[in-house]
Design goal:
By secondary structure, the protein is of the alpha/beta class. The chain is built from 23 helices and 10 strands. The chain has a 4-stranded parallel β-sheet. Strands 7-6-8-9 form a 4-stranded parallel β-sheet. Helix 22 links the parallel strand 8 and strand 9. The chain is globular, with a radius of gyration of 21 Å.
Length: 433
């Protein structure tokens, strides 16, 4: 039986925290797949035991092992709950890389094709992302008023309902000038635009730029930046993740400590981990560490400034915390603090706001049954809140929750948190039109 050296090394690096694990079970109630399946092998400590057994040659990787490893959403809620500080996400990435190296896969042919097409063919190439977005934009506009027919296969219907509505047409903004009392004072920031964010959610990217400029920041957007590699990391394609990381470091590195502002939680999480990802690369290790230290989620950055206030918005809103913002980046209070810039906002807390929605990159497409079960709990909490607008800070979460509320027939909007702040700024007359 071949021993996976990389997995063995990853576990050895975590040896101190793994040995400190007392099997207290604090991670169990926070794990969405354990809650759904009720199987110890689908819990964080169960999966760690399996990985360790494989790394030590005590267990032969087989279909059941592969199913348990692939069944993890990698929401990393267990990391927040763990008193021993086990870095579960890092070990899981290496375990999945080992599965890819061994050619082990329990996904069906459709799911494998989706993963291959997304990771190898589409996301690394911005031109292809742009071309793929053209038919998707048409489908977004074709959605029937009552939603896609229930007669469609469920996975097809879910995929269609995930597509966000076309951006709301607002009066074009001609120019954005720093508002009176803006904190930026001309300080420079770099905006990371990503791949899907710059096409399917370009309105959010543009809103982010306007918000930063209204707060007095000079915004740079280098052209050669690209896909962050988050979805590749999720899937265990770490070689490709490293290639994408090197590209972004080359594109965005400028020898300064200028903040790199990110508005997608999944992107921000992997960008902040480039230092660890490239720790063994002699040409990039130090550069990657410096790069990751510059990365800030947009809410994290803005909440740390005395940002300009907007105008009141007449919505009852709630906020769902993306896993890779709350658990991976540990940015937990900043989004709610940033919302204070909207006066008199009717905000209601969301029950279990830090619980996973089941998106997990493309997990909702490759593991639809488990994803759907996790999503149902989230939609129940949304309905219970009574909010007419759900805010989040990650495109995958936005699409997943949108599909959920549409499938349940709820009259609820789902938007990016920066989109609401942008609307508030526009209502306050902070933009020249």
């Amino acid at each position: 039986m071949a021993v996976p050296e990389e997995l063995k090394r990853a576990i050895e690096l975590e040896e101190d925290t793994l040995l400190a694990c007392v099997h207290c079970g604090l991670c169990l109630p926070h794990c969405p797949t354990y809650s759904a399946a009720g199987d110890e092998n689908d819990s964080p400590r169960g999966r760690l035991w399996l990985m360790r057994a494989v790394a030590e040659g005590r267990l032969d990787p087989n279909d059941p092992y592969t199913e348990h490893i692939e069944g993890c959403i990698v929401c990393r809620a267990c990391e927040t709950a763990c008193p021993s500080g086990v870095r579960y996400g890092h070990v899981m990435g290496v375990a999945r890389e080992d599965l890819r190296d061994r050619g082990l896969d329990t996904l069906g042919p459709v799911a494998r094709f989706i993963r291959w097409a997304a990771l190898k063919f589409v996301l690394p190439h911005q031109l292809i992302v742009k071309l793929v977005n053209i038919p998707m934009s048409l489908v977004r506009r074709m959605r029937p008023a009552r939603g896609w027919p229930a007669t469609l296969p469920r996975f097809v219907r879910v995929g269609l309902e995930m597509l966000p509505p076309p951006p709301v047409k607002r009066q074009p903004v001609r120019q954005v000038s720093a508002a009176t009392g803006a904190p930026g004072q001309g300080r420079r920031v770099v905006q990371f635009r990503g791949c899907l964010m710059d096409e399917m959610f370009r309105d959010v990217n543009e809103a982010t730029t306007r918000i930063l400029k209204a707060n007095g920041f000079a915004v740079d957007m280098p052209k050669d930046q690209g896909c962050c590699g988050a979805l590749h990391d999720h899937a265990g394609d770490l070689d490709h993740t490293r290639r994408l990381a090197r590209n972004n470091i080359d594109a965005l590195e400028d020898g300064s400590d200028t903040p790199i502002i990110v508005n997608a939680a999944g992107c921000g999480a992997i960008l902040k981990e480039y230092g660890e990802l490239l720790a063994d690369d002699p040409d990039y290790a130090e550069r990657a560490e410096r790069f990751s230290a510059r990365v800030k989620d947009a809410t994290e950055f803005l909440a740390g400034e005395a940002i300009v206030s907007g105008a009141p918005i007449p919505y009852k809103v709630t906020f769902d915390a993306p896993c890779h913002l709350y658990h991976a980046q540990r940015v937990q209070k900043a989004p709610l603090e940033m919302l204070r810039a909207i006066p008199d906002l009717d905000f209601v807390p969301l029950r279990d706001a830090d619980r996973c929605c089941g998106s997990g990159g493309i997990y909702n497409l490759t593991q639809p049954d488990l994803s759907d079960e996790v999503l149902r709990a989230k939609i129940d909490a949304v309905a219970e809140s009574g909010a007419g607008l759900v805010l989040t800070a990650n495109p995958g979460c936005q699409m997943q929750i949108l599909a959920g509320v549409r499938m349940e027939g709820l009259e609820v909007e789902v938007r990016h948190i920066l989109d609401l702040l942008d609307e508030s700024y526009a209502a306050a007359g902070l933009y020249e039109k």
